[in-house]
Amino acid sequence: MLHKLTAKVKGASYSFVRNKLPKYCHRSRLLSSIYYGVFDKSFAREHQAVLAGRIKHVEEASQEKGNYFLMVRNTHRLEKGLLMRPRRAVFAKEYIGETMDNFESIWNHKEISGNPQMKWFYDVLSSYFESAGTDPDIEKYQERFKKKVNGFDTAMARADTPVKAVPYHRLQEQSSHITFEEFYKLTRQRRSVRWFDARPVPRELIDKAVLAANQSPSACNRQPYEFRIFDDPALVQEVTKYPMGTSGYGHNIPVMIVLVGNLDAYFDERDRHVIYIDASLAAMSFMLALETMGLSSCSINWPDVEEKEVKMEKFLKLKTQQRALMCMAVGYSDPEGMVAFSEKRPLDQIRQYN
Ligand SMILES: Cc1cc2nc3c(=O)[nH]c(=O)nc-3n(C[C@H](O)[C@H](O)[C@H](O)COP(=O)(O)O)c2cc1C
User: Fold this and answer.
1) Residue 214 falls within a domain, yes or no?
2) I need a surface site. Which of 22, 47, 178, 324 has the fewest CB within 10 A?
3) Angle at which helices 96-109 and 44-61 cross, to 10°
4) Ligand 1 atom 1, closest CA
5) Which domain holds residue 143?
6) Whose CA is nearest to atom 11 of ligand 1?
């Protein structure tokens, strides 16, 4: 009796919080914040992740090991300064100090020869200092740079690419020969495939698709994501259970991928959505690249449901600032299995000029 009464009260209060209260709270930002701060914890994990990311970002920037994301962002900013028309005689004065601090720290800790981004940092900074003009503030950093990289040119002579990693003019003859028609065909060929045959997927092909994904645009080139790839059958079965959208076909997925976003790429909340955008752009290139190699895929939603988040967090050993973003099933499609037609919205429904 008491049990039934408790359930009834719980049901009524859930319905009040879920349906009635939002009707008042949505009218103001403060009330909305109170609603999500007190009555509904849907955003609690995201709030904590954003905050943890920002703090890690800021702390790392002033620590001995340096902040790699900051270094990438600032190198990108320097490149934009170098390619600006007309180029300003003096630029980047406000962030060259923090760039050099982080460059020196990263230089001390990362393997120089194996990481092409180290060469990019080096080349862009070299170009910047060559063209920065005479400014006493900048000259002081130029001296620090020279001292730090003393002897690096010899190391780079052994590197894969002798090309300077700085702004350049694109050459027509180096363009791809893919026509729009062929590209469009590829986009239509890609359909979400849910039935796979038992052939194992060579890691080499997945890596190639990740390489293509790696060329996707990302805000300030930070690439705040990771592909966590599972091809061990036991682990695939385990991770396939976590999202909601794999029921009925999860058992035949040969490879399961979880895209993870790193919120420590940002120093400010304003960029908190960028993990989703950047990872989605990469995911699209990844899936198209798979198609060119005869492989198929299906995107799988990652719902922000606390109980599921806890399982995924444990499985992937995620840090507080890391978020699972989406999953992807990958494999060779089973020709006996069908795909949904998935007709798309007509052009005039999805585009509008001016
Ligand atoms: C973010 C996202 C989440 C998705 N989640 C699921 C899912 O959980 N389960 C599933 O079977 N398909 C899922 N899909 C696949 C969509 O159903 C599919 O992309 C859509 O119906 C269009 O079909 P197409 O991919 O063949 O063009 C998802 C796709 C995206 C982009």
Assistant:
1) yes
2) 178
3) 90
4) 301
5) 62-156
6) 245
